Amino acid sequence: MNLSGKTAVYGVIGDPVAHSLSPAMQNAAFEALGLNSVFLAFQVPAVKVEFALRGMRGLGICGLNVTMPDKNAVIPHLDEVDETARFLGSVNTILNDSGKLRGFSTDGAGAHRALIENGAELAKKKLVVLGGGGAAKAVAYTLAQEVAELTLLNRTPQKLADLAKAITQKFQTKVTVGSTSPNEIQRSLQDADVLVNATSVGMHPHTAQSLVKPEWLKPTLTVMDIVYNPEETKLAQDAKAAGARVVSGVEMLIYQGAASFEIWTGKPAPVEVMRNAAQNQLKHRASGGDGIGES
Ligand SMILES: NC(=O)c1ccc[n+]([C@@H]2O[C@H](COP(=O)([O-])OP(=O)(O)OC[C@H]3O[C@@H](n4cnc5c(N)ncnc54)[C@H](OP(=O)(O)O)[C@@H]3O)[C@@H](O)[C@H]2O)c1
Q1: Taking residues 118-122, what's their average pLDDT?
Q2: Which of 206, 210, 215, 282 has the fewest CB atoms lying closer than 10 Å?
Q3: Average pLDDT of the residues in 265-281
Q4: pTM of structure
Q5: Which atom number of ligand 1 is nearest to the Cα of residue 180?
């Protein structure tokens, strides 16, 4: 890396943030394209978001990723927020556009591209999304624009009412809401084409857990588990054994990062380079027993 007086500065803010995979992915991408840019991690608790964004303006930081717990807290301090991020109340990418701070949410786009690039079909299909947190909402909101039918299941289904209403009104997609009880998951999967686990179930250290029984999975199903720690979750293992198409959460992570890169630079992201960087980091951490943070 050749740092100079002309080096453009990017970064990720969040708390914790030290284990983010974004610096590895974004620095590899800058290097691959020969850009004089650097990407750093800044630990910013939600109460300091205002100062961080004033710093972004004052120092001319070109772009930021935003992770927990800052995804909502940044919104009042931005000049513009795109439609998806505004609807979700969550920003994961900020572009400093000649002094104007513009917020975006790339999680849904990352999930969409991960599915499509890995051969999944969405048009006219039935999608089941497990979860009702920030990631589940982003995924459901974006994918609902393409599928014919959507079933949203969450441990706390009440959290899904507004999302379901908005999706039906905006995209005329048929939406069913329910809980993650075994009966409801099994029933929903009977005629489903695509299943996305967007809960944190199966995440390290509870790697033996899955909300989906192996016998409910079938070869005609595409399964994406957005959990990427571990890289292959129990659900992904079971889906593979059932002959289903499996898309890893690392793919979503890479494509949401690629979408951020493209917003910042206006250039196509070198996805293969970003994938190698993310996977090298994950392998390194798995061998060293290091914890893994958010994107
Ligand atoms: N691959 C990627 O690029 C990417 C991007 C973002 C997030 N993620 C991963 O996605 C997961 C969710 O992230 P998030 O930001 O949406 O988190 P979040 O807002 O905290 O939501 C967590 C979700 O998991 C559900 N849940 C937790 N424990 C459960 C249990 N024992 N049984 C049933 N449901 C349970 C919660 O249900 P309740 O609503 O009932 O509490 C909620 O729906 C995390 O593992 C995160 O690392 C991956």
Answers
A1: 97
A2: 215
A3: 97
A4: 0.95
A5: 33
Which residue's C-alpha comes closest to atom 25 of ligand 1? 199
Strands of the 245-248 sheet, one edge to the other: 174-178, 149-153, 126-130, 194-197, 222-225, 245-248
Tokens of 132: 């009702």
Per-position b or e across 182-219, b if 16+ CB within 10 A of its CB: eebbeebbeebbbbbbbbebbbeeeeeebbbeeebbee
Question: Residue 11: pLDDT above 80?
Answer: yes
User: For the chain, which domains are there?
Assistant: 8-106+252-288 (3.40.50.10860), 108-248 (3.40.50.720)
Distance 7 CA to ligand 1 centre (A): 36
Spatial neighbors of 100 by CB under 8 A, at least 6 apart, are 79, 80
